[in-house]
Predict the structure.
Amino acid sequence: MFRPVKIQSESGPRTFGTLEEATEYLLMNWPAYQSPTLDHARQICLDAINNKASRHKARAAFVAAAKEAGIHIGRTKIKKALDTAAELITLPLADGQASALDEINPDPKVLMNLTTK
């Protein structure tokens, strides 16, 4: 499964719902920018299309290349929910002390697993 990826491209917001769409964008429409991360993302995406790599790894490589190129990645619903929860958790307690829960930093790997269910 390839979870949709939202980006803010030069021409406006774009959502890639399939691995094939993301790969085409990497190969044909990527901004004029070259790097080993981009080369890796292109190769992993092509490998995933040919069932030689996982779609999960391909998506992660796409996101890494986008971040490196300064392309804004859209927030997922789970990220929005976590941000809202973090705001509620860090509300001050009655005595003026912050909640002990305000120091929680969720592991990104755990969050990735949450969004795939």
Remarks:
- The two ends are 11 Å apart (CA to CA).
- Residues 36-49 form the longest helix (14 residues).
- Residues 99-104 have pLDDT under 50 and may be disordered.
